[in-house]
């Protein structure tokens, strides 16, 4: 499992990155994370929903209730311009760290986490 | 979360109901809001939907989804946290609960540290009160004449003239100029000339001495705004014989104000009809009057007619109203052209000049320093000086605040440390401390307003103002006060706020702050600043007071004691003056009596004098007193050359001169002026019979000017003399005055209006008197504030050193030695303040201010030593109270105090 501190630090950038692909809803976000990580990142809804709420208050994302095929309302989130800028910066920062790791450890040496 | 499974088994499974129950239970959790519940419900449904899609039954799917959801309590906690804390949980609302805490702590501090809070609030309150008082005074001074609707278009005509090389700037101008300018310069809309009069008014056989009556033009009310109580101002001053009364005068004459149409007789000569009654003239007018009569009433009188028509006769004031958008500079150059056209030739021939300029109405009170002002004026420099003093006193109070708060901050180190450990950021702490000091200064401002309201009547007497308490409540004052509160709160709180918030929590919690504070260089600098300001003010007050005393006690060069001067205001009395003088001299207590056109302190006549055998261009302006034979004897003036006027020289009867030394020098004759001839008219040159030793006949602000005394025959005198001076012998003065009064009543219809020569001279220094008193008050306030601060610091220092003192005592230190130890530090700084402030005071007041006076005291070492001694004594007294208390304390207690 990934350490708690790292999970906490990476949640927001990951949400931003996922939403960058297009609008999405809470359940699907959690699913995406699980799939993308091959089941090694397991987010829980008490972690995600308050975070989404906070991000919306900070103006990074915007939400909208939409009617689904099964005739019920579901809240969809998408990036605002500010969120987009934030996402780009976060990505740059993460890839910087990633680069540094790559240089320190060498590409071959990265072990399976 | 309650377990939904139990209920699900009660009947056939209903997914909707199960979800509803689940959501309801969720909403019951603290920290979860409706919106949050809806989100989570959506999540649950998504999960169930997916599980059903994978082939599970509804019931199974729901149970698994619900089980995978985290407990409601955990959810609630997460939501609550995301709302209150963290870097992005910002906004004012995020801080609200803390604000309450700050407020509680602030109030607790005030309650717990009563002495400190008292000193802090009292010091600031006194400082604010002083500042407010000064601001009210400044506002009052700046507000003169602004109530006139057309104030921005009203100008007073002033004159810069030079006759025979004696330049003069005059507030009075020739009356003929006004109609001439109005006719020839299109920008001049209208004008009002003012001719002052003090008539005897007769109303239904009752007589009243009036003063402050002006004859003026119908344009007066177009220029000045006055509230009318009865009558029509548009026509009130038309035609001869119209009279406008102020409310006060109407009440005095008639006992009521609805008197339009009534008749008032002036001087038993002229009947005037009351055409309007107006409200009393506001105190914020640069001149006040009791009544206005139409100038047409007197314009044709043989003694007034020339005054109305001649360019070189000046008797009164002229106000002009310019048209909208008119440029006063352009009008001035047009006036110059008019003057050249009318009298240019005459001026060139006599080598004289005369130029008019326009003085804005609102500038008259503070920015006018002209000869012949219509009433006493203020001085903008005092407005600046007092504003500066206000700023300094405020700074003083702020310094106290900073000083005490910083000193006390050691005690709050733990609080700061704890707050920091608990996650307070520097901004929070700065906010908290600034908030506290704003709270204290708000408290102080309430006290200050109460204080000002309390002392306002006394201040008004002192400053000769009539500032109403209402002006405290005006929007401007309240805004200013709010501004002051915020300013002092921030100024006073900023240092402690920045200083304390920079504490390192680890060091603080280990108890390490005190050490840095004890050195407290910054605080010492502030003490020096405070005392410097106080010392400058004290020295300033003393210098102003000593200059006023100097002027009042200086030998004026004549004998001012027991010289009674009667104002002679009616023609009948003037005609009988000579006879009256002889009557009075018969009384044993009257030594001399003299009837003159001027007396020392009130010489108003200045004329151009020519010298026999010298070209006209050497003529110059002298002050002149029309006199009978007895002026020199009455005033005990010394004759240095020649002789006094004498009835035994028949040649004197036609008119001869006495001149003062300055005039003799100016004439270029010096010692041999006696026997030469001078005159105000080339055809009428008269002999100088004696030279008087220079004496002061004007304020000591001015150097002694050339003065001539012209002996005049009785018929000339009756038209020109105004004062009857009596030299009284030692004895029963009140009885003598009663006798004179009785004799006077037989010869004059006017009331008995008298003054003593010395008294009147003193009244010339009312300004200086007043300024001296005001500065004294503020100096005392400043000293008080500074002492409060010192007291607070001393008590703090004593407290900090309790243990040290205990140890020293146990080891055998004497109480005196300890008290000295504790006082020494502060006295050192006060001494330094003296070194800074005394030269500053010497330069500012001892040089700059005193330079306004031709005759001045030299601020002696005594004043400065006195101030230095006083400041040290006050400081010592303040500090030693605490020092002695600490030194006397039982060492057992002080060593055990923790």
Explain this structure.
Chain A is an alpha+beta fold and 113 residues long. Chain A has 4 helices and 3 strands. Chain A has a 3-stranded antiparallel β-sheet with strand order 1-3-2. In chain A, strand 2 (61-67) and strand 3 (73-79) form a beta hairpin. Chain B has 4 domains: 4-84, no CATH class; 166-351, no CATH class; 381-550 and 766-896, no CATH class; 570-752, no CATH class. In chain B, helix 2 (15-27) packs antiparallel against helix 3 and helix 14 (380-409) runs parallel beside helix 17. In chain B, strands 1, 2, 3, 4, 5, 6, 7, 8, 9, 10, 11, 12 and 13 form a 13-stranded mixed β-sheet that branches. Chain B is of the alpha+beta class. In chain B, 53% of the residues lie in helices and 15% in strands. Chain B starts with a helix and ends with a helix. The interface between A and B is medium-sized, with 21 and 23 residues.
Major sheet characteristics of chain B: 13 strands, mixed
Cα-to-Cα separation, first versus last residue of chain B: 52 Å
C-alpha Rg of chain B, in Å?
Answer: 41 Å
* Number of helices in the DSSP assignment of chain A: 4
Q: How does the overall form of chain A come out from the CA principal axes?
A: globular
The CATH class of chain A is Mainly Alpha
Radius of gyration of chain A: 16 Å
CATH-assigned fold name of chain A: Arc Repressor Mutant, subunit A
Oligomeric state of shown chains:
heterodimer
- Please report the number of helical segments of chain B: 32
Q: What is the CATH homology-level superfamily of chain A?
A: Winged helix-like DNA-binding domain superfamily/Winged helix DNA-binding domain
* SS class of chain A: alpha+beta
Q: What is the beta-strand fraction of chain B?
A: 15-25%
């Amino acid at each position: 499992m990934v350490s708690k501190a790292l999970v906490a630090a990476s949640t927001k950038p990951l949400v931003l990155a996922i939403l960058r692909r297009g609008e999405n809803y809470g359940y699907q976000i959690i699913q995406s994370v699980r799939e993308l990580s091959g089941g090694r990142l397991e987010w829980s809804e008490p972690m995600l929903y308050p975070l989404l709420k906070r991000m919306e208050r900070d103006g990074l994302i915007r939400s909208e209730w939409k009617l689904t095929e099964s005739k019920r309302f579901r809240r969809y989130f998408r990036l605002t311009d500010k969120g987009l800028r934030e996402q780009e910066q976060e990505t740059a920062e993460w890839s910087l760290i990633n680069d540094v790791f790559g240089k320190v450890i060498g590409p071959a040496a990265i072990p399976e986490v | 979360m309650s377990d939904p499974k139990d209920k699900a088994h009660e009947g056939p499974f209903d997914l909707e109901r199960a979800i509803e129950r689940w959501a309801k239970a969720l909403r019951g959790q603290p920290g979860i809001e409706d919106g949050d519940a809806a989100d989570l419900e959506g999540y649950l449904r998504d999960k169930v939907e997916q599980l059903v899609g994978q082939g599970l039954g509804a019931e199974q799917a729901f149970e698994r989804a619900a089980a995978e959801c985290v407990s409601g309590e955990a959810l609630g906690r997460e939501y609550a946290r995301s709302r209150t804390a963290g870097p992005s949980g910002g906004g004012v609302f995020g801080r609200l609960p803390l604000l309450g805490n700050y407020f509680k702590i602030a109030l607790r501090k005030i309650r717990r540290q009563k002495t400190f809070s008292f000193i802090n609030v009292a010091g600031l309150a006194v400082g604010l009160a002083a500042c407010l008082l000064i601001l009210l005074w400044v506002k009052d001074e700046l507000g003169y004449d602004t109530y006139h609707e057309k104030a921005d278009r009203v100008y007073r005509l002033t004159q810069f003239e030079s006759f025979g090389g004696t330049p003069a700037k005059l507030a009075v101008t020739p009356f003929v100029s006004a109609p001439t300018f109005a006719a020839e310069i299109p920008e001049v809309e209208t004008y009002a000339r003012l001719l002052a009069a003090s008539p005897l008014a007769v109303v239904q056989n009752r007589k009243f001495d009036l003063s402050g009556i002006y004859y003026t033009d119908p344009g007066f009310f177009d220029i000045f705004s006055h509230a009318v109580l009865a009558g029509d101002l548009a026509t009130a001053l038309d035609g001869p014989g119209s009279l406008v009364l102020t409310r006060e005068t109407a009440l005095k004459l008639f006992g009521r104000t609805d008197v339009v149409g009534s008749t008032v007789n002036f001087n038993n000569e002229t009947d005037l009809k009351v055409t309007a009654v107006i409200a009393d003239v506001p105190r914020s007018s640069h001149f006040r009057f009791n009544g206005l009569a139409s100038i047409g009433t007197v314009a044709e009188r043989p003694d007034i007619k020339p005054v109305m028509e001649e360019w070189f006769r000046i008797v009164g004031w002229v106000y002009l109203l310019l048209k909208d958008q008119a440029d006063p500079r352009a009008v001035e150059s047009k006036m110059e052209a008019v003057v050249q056209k009318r009298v240019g030739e005459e001026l060139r021939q006599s080598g004289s000049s005369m130029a008019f300029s326009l003085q804005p109405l609102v500038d008259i009170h503070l920015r006018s320093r002209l000869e012949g002002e219509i009433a006493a004026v203020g001085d903008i420099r005092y407005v600046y000086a007092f504003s500066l003093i206000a700023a300094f006193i405020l700074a003083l109070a702020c310094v106290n605040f900073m000083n005490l708060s910083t000193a006390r901050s050691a005690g709050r180190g733990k609080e700061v440390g704890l707050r920091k450990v608990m996650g307070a950021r520097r901004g929070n702490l700065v906010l908290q401390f600034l908030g506290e000091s704003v709270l204290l200064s708000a408290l102080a401002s309430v006290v200050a307003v109460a204080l000002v309201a309390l002392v306002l009547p006394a201040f008004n007497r002192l400053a000769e103002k009539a500032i109403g308490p209402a002006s405290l409540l005006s929007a401007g004052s309240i805004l200013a006060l709010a501004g002051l509160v915020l300013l002092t709160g921030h100024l006073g709180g900023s240092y402690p706020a920045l200083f304390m918030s920079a504490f390192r929590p680890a060091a603080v919690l280990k108890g390490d702050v005190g050490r840095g504070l004890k050195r407290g260089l910054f605080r010492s600098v502030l003490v020096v600043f405070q005392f410097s300001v106080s010392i400058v003010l004290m020295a300033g007050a003393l210098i102003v007071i000593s200059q006023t005393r100097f002027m009042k006690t200086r030998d004026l060069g004549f004998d001012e004691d027991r010289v009674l001067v009667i104002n002679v205001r009616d023609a009948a009395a003037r005609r009988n003056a000579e006879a009256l003088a002889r009557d009075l001299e018969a009384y044993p207590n009257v030594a001399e009596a003299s009837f003159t056109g001027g007396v020392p302190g009130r010489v108003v006549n200045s004329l151009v004098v020519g010298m026999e055998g010298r070209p006209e261009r050497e003529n110059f302006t002298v002050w002149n007193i029309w006199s009978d034979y007895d002026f020199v004897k009455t005033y005990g003036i010394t004759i240095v050359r020649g002789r006094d006027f004498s009835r035994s020289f028949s040649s004197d009867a036609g008119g001869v001169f006495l001149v003062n030394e300055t005039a003799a020098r100016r004439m270029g004759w010096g010692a041999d002026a006696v026997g030469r001839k001078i005159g105000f008219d080339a055809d009428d040159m008269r002999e100088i019979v004696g030279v008087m030793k220079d004496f002061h006949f004007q304020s000591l602000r001015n150097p002694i000017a050339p003065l001539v005394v012209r002996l005049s025959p009785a018929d000339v005198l009756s038209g020109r003399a105004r004062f009857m001076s009596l030299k009284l012998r030692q004895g029963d003065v009140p009885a003598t005055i009663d006798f004179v009064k009785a004799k006077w009543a037989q010869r004059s219809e006017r009331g008995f209006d008298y003054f003593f020569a010395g008294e009147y001279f003193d009244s010339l220094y009312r300004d200086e008197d007043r300024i001296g008193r005001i500065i004294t008050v503020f100096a005392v306030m400043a000293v008080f504030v500074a002492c409060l601060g010192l007291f607070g610091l001393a008590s703090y220092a004593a407290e900090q050193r309790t243990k040290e003192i205990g140890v020293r005592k146990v080891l055998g230190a004497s109480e005196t030695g300890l008290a000295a130890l504790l006082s020494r530090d502060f006295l050192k700084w006060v001494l330094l303040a003296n070194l800074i402030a005394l030269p500053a005071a010497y330069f500012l007041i001892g040089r700059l201010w005193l330079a306004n006076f031709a005759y001045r005291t030299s601020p002696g070492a005594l004043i400065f030593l006195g101030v230095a001694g006083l400041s040290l004594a006050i400081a010592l007294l303040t500090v030693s109270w605490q020092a002695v208390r600490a030194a006397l304390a039982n060492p057992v207690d002080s060593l055990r105090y923790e």
